[in-house]
Design a protein that fits this description.
Layout: H1 5-19, H2 40-53, H3 62-75, H4 85-93, H5 100-110, H6 116-135, H7 139-143, H8 150-165, H9 170-182, H10 191-203, H11 206-214, H12 223-238, H13 251-262
Helix pairs in contact: 2-3, 3-4, 3-5, 4-6, 5-8, 6-8, 6-9, 8-10, 9-10, 9-11, 10-11, 10-12
The structure holds zinc ion (ZN).
The site of zinc ion has 9 residues, from helix 2.
């Protein structure tokens, strides 16, 4: 479908007014695609892409699998108002890839302009795996296959909650909250801990923010904990709130006091993730 720049800009503006602005991908909207059905042009593009990349999805080369997944994920960015369920399903399936490197990449793709319901379910399921791995005592051993080095596994573990934190959905809050609560005290300051805290602050519900500053207790002068404190500060500043406590022995007490005044600035619930677009 060929539409002029002006028409597209007008459609884009109308759509933005409809869904509200927020952080998201630079993306185009298509006035003819609907949630139920893609327009002829984009439907054909989807068919052609699966024709071209379908085989590479099961390639033995992980680089080829990633390339195919990136190509399928990009399709939806041309009709961000109606992201393809089929493309998102292909990404969701790739969350079962034996390689953590692939799964980490897929998580990033799912968090960026894909069908929100399919993306949320896939990322929550992946977070459940991390939670189970924590329950089994050795997260890295539980998750990593022979081909994955510890470094890849650690990056993966930190990136999954990060991706889930970008989808504004109560199910993401619930699972990351559970992960944070399950993390043993000695992981405070480690990547999985910091990533879970960051994700909860990004989600920004009352429950998720409170859970984060409570992790500072018992306080110690640890750089990882200080990072968490600074993240809560930034989260509060973004909302133009004031009176936040300074870093130090009394900061947990300070946060609790601050919380009594400012808790209502944070929503109790987010509901389900919706499409979020912004102008490119
Ligand atoms: Zn279209």
């Amino acid at each position: 479908m060929k539409i002029s720049r002006q028409v597209r800009a007008a459609l884009s503006a109308a759509f933005l007014a409809l869904v509200g602005a927020g952080a998201a991908v630079a993306a185009d909207v298509c006035g003819e695609c609907t949630a139920k059905e893609l327009c002829a042009t984009h439907g054909a593009a989807l068919e052609a892409a699966f024709e071209e990349w379908g085989e590479a999805l099961t390639s033995e080369d992980e680089g080829e699998r990633i390339e195919a997944l990136v190509a399928l994920a990009e399709l939806s960015h041309e009709h961000a108002n109606a992201p393809s369920e089929r493309a998102a399903e292909a990404l969701a399936q790739a969350m079962d890839d034996p390689s953590l490197r692939v799964r980490q990449r897929v998580a990033r793709l799912l968090a960026n302009g894909q069908h929100p319901e399919i993306a949320v379910r896939a990322l929550v399921r992946e977070c459940e795996r991390i939670k189970q791995g924590l329950g089994n005592g050795n997260l890295v051993q539980t998750l990593a296959s022979d081909s994955d080095e510890t470094q890849v596994a650690m990056a993966y573990i930190a990136n999954i909650p990060k991706a889930a934190g970008e989808l504004k959905d109560d199910r993401c809050v619930e699972i990351i909250y559970k992960i944070l609560k399950q993390l043993p005290a000695e992981t405070r300051g480690q990547p999985i801990f910091v990533a879970s805290c960051d994700a909860l602050l990004e989600l920004g519900t009352a429950k998720s923010v409170e859970a984060v500053f409570e992790t500072l207790s018992p306080w110690s002068d640890d750089p990882g904990l200080r990072r968490v404190h600074n993240s809560v500060l930034r989260c509060a500043s973004r909302r133009d709130l004031e009176g936040m406590p300074d870093w130090g022995e009394d900061c947990v007490k300070g946060w609790r006091k601050w919380w009594r005044v400012n808790k209502r600035a944070f929503p109790a619930k987010l509901g389900k993730a919706k499409l979020v677009l912004e102008e490119d």
